[in-house]
């Protein structure tokens, strides 16, 4: 199992040419390889939701996992905009290019994850919205509101009071339970 590279390293991101149909086809092949069932210790991941009203299939969210931050950022730069396609009246290529530019800044260490998430979410409004980027240790023991919300979700499912961090013995159950989060 490869460990996720430290996300503070400068990483080179190669941006594909925007072809929404082709990227969508590639995404369909890639997506099954990135869900929580593919998570391994040390992987980097993100959680995002479709930014549309529920009646049109929006609002659903999912985790995707990658062996390294480099692969995660490469994915975000090239497939995030087609992950949950935006309204047809929007310029998809413009949004794609803006998201790719922001992800490049993140990968190059010019901005931090929190700033990148805010900028990407603004650029990708009506497409997808990122709620979190990081490693499992950030979710199982981190102090972010998102991590706390997930741990609370897990503990409620077990019908136990919030126990704070997730211990190693419960990690497998935690990963399994949060795979349902956002669906």
Structure description:
The protein has 183 residues and is of the alpha+beta class. Mean pLDDT is 87; it is low at 1-8. The two termini are 28 Å apart. The protein has helices at 20-31, 69-83, 92-107, 113-123, 136-141, 145-157, 171-178; strands at residues 44-50, 61-66, 128-135. A 3-stranded antiparallel beta sheet has the order 2-1-3. It is globular and about 50 Å long.
Keyphrases for this structure?
183 residues; alpha+beta; three-stranded antiparallel beta sheet; 3 strands; 11% strand; disordered N terminus
Measured as a percent range, the helix fraction is 40-55%
Alpha-carbon distance between the termini?
Answer: 28 Å
Largest sheet: 3 strands, antiparallel
Q: What is the topology, as strand order, of the major beta sheet?
A: 2-1-3
- The average pLDDT value, as a whole number, equals 87
Count the beta strands: 3
Catalogue the unreliable spans. 1-8
Query: How many distinct helices?
Result: 7
> What does the overall shape look like?
globular
The sequence of SSEs as H and E is HEEHHHEHHH
Structural class given helices, strands, pairing?
alpha+beta
Give the radius of gyration. 16 Å
Classify the beta-strand content into a percent band: 5-15%
Summarize the structure.
The protein has helices at 20-31, 69-83, 92-107, 113-123, 136-141, 145-157, 171-178; strands at residues 44-50, 61-66, 128-135. The protein is of the alpha+beta class and 183 residues long. It has 7 helices and 3 strands.
């Amino acid at each position: 199992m490869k460990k996720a590279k430290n996300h503070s390293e400068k990483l080179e991101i190669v941006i594909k040419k925007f072809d929404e149909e082709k990227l969508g086809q590639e995404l369909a092949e890639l997506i099954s390889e990135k869900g929580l069932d593919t998570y391994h210790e040390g992987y980097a991941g993100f959680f995002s939701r479709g930014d549309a009203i529920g009646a049109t299939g929006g609002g659903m969210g999912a985790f995707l996992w990658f062996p390294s931050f480099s692969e995660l950022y490469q994915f975000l730069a090239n497939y995030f905009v087609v992950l949950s396609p935006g309204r047809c009246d929007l310029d998809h290529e413009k949004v794609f290019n803006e998201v790719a530019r922001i992800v490049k800044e993140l990968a190059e260490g010019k901005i931090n994850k929190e700033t990148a998430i805010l900028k990407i979410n603004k650029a990708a409004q009506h497409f997808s919205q990122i709620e979190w980027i990081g490693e499992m240790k950030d979710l199982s023991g981190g102090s972010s509101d998102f991590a706390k919300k997930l741990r609370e979700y897990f503990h409620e499912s077990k019908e136990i009071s919030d126990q704070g961090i997730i211990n190693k013995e419960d990690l497998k159950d935690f990963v399994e339970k949060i795979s349902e989060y956002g669906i």
